[in-house]
Amino acid sequence: MERLMLLDGNGLIYRGYFALINVPLSTSKGELVNAVFGFSNIVLRGFQDVRPDYVAIAFDLPAPTFRHGLSADYKATRRPMPDDLRAQFPKVREVVAALRLPVFELAGFEADDVIGTLTREAEGCDLETTIVTGDLDMLQLVTDRTRLMTTRMGVDATVIYDPARIEERYGLVAGQMIDFKALKGDSTDNIPGVPGVGDKTAAKLISQFGDLDALYAHLDEVTPEKLREKLREHHDQVLASRELVTIHRDLPVALDLDAARFGDYDREEVVRLFREYEFRTLIDR
Questions:
Q1: Are residues 17 and 35 in contact, defined by beta-carbon separation less than 8 angstroms?
Q2: Can you give the pTM of this predicted structure?
Q3: How many whole angstroms separate alpha carbon 122 and alpha carbon 10?
Q4: 285: closest CA among 120, 14, 40, 44?
Q5: Which among 29, 13, 42, 11 is positioned nearest to 282, based on CA atoms?
Q6: How far is it, in rounded angstroms, from Cα 21 to Cα 147?
Q7: Which sign does the torsion angle of CA 241, 242, 247, 251 carry?
Q8: What is d(CA 262, CA 3) in angstroms, rounded to the nearest whole number?
Q9: Are 135 and 117 in contact (CB under 8 A)?
Q10: Ordered DSSP codes for 83-106
């Protein structure tokens, strides 16, 4: 079976930046390039581990998305992007262009939604897909033919999530991750969930009842009473959170396998960029 690798552009740039935030990765000209290095390192590691036949990348656009229309508080607690991180995005785009990776982005939606749509297309083409990202927001997309690779402990160690790994960690199947996240919330994106309900309680409830609808249909069976009353009190908030965390998979984007064919890249330009940014350790790789 042929392999597709889908890169979460913004997620990997952020992961590279914050994983190396205490590492003084600057060029001799004084330009900070830690996010560019982290991004490039993760991508090259992905190439090595996955050995894909096709590669594509999705980016977020700076404009608000439909989720901001659903909730004015969505991501409202996030700090503004640091200026020294913002300055590195064009450099990452140069690396992406030199690697000749097709870029997908769509106004009003996030990269997660774009990737969700592309993975559905890929499964229809009988491809095995690996999503490479900096976080676990896309666990809901995991299937027998779609897995998620994320980094931990910096940018060098990777973890692969397939259905077995999700079951091992959460005791859930991938499709239940939407309701799990709606219950526990997500402080990073300012999604409230139910106050006091964390990973263990959310996983236990979804495992016991199957999904949110069944949970609320059998709310009287929930113990202890204090938890039952919290769930009842925050019913509407949980359903609103579920809408926010659900990845849309029907966007008007099309997977062009010819453009995504891996290996046809501008090696001279990649080497030139890595020399300019002084990534000597990455050139041979």
A1: yes
A2: 0.95
A3: 21
A4: 44
A5: 42
A6: 28
A7: negative
A8: 10
A9: no
A10: HHHHTTHHHHHHHHHHTT--EE--
Low-confidence ranges of the chain (pLDDT < 50): none
Q: How far is CA 146 from CA 53, 181, 192, in A?
A: 15, 20, 28
Q: In this structure, what are the phi and psi dihedrals at residue 92, rounded to the nearest 5 degrees?
A: -60, -40
CA-CA distance, 20 to 35, in Å (whole number)?
7
pLDDT reported for residue 285: 85
In the prediction, which pLDDT does 170 show?
A: 97
Tokens of residue 284, six digits? 């041979």
Burial of 24 (0-12, 13-18, 19+ CB in 10 A): exposed
Cα separation, 232 vs 240, whole angstroms = 14
Give the burial class of 18: count Cβ atoms within 10 A of its Cβ; 0-12 exposed, 13-18 middle, 19 or more buried: middle
Residue 146 contacts by C-beta under 8 Å, 6 or more apart in sequence? 119, 122, 123, 128, 129, 130, 131
Write the pLDDT tens digit of every residue in 25-69.
899 999 999 999 999 999 999 999 999 999 999 999 998 999 999
Collapsing DSSP to helix, strand or coil, 253 comes out as coil
According to the model, what pLDDT value does residue 78 have? 87
Cis peptide before 224 (omega within 30 of 0): yes
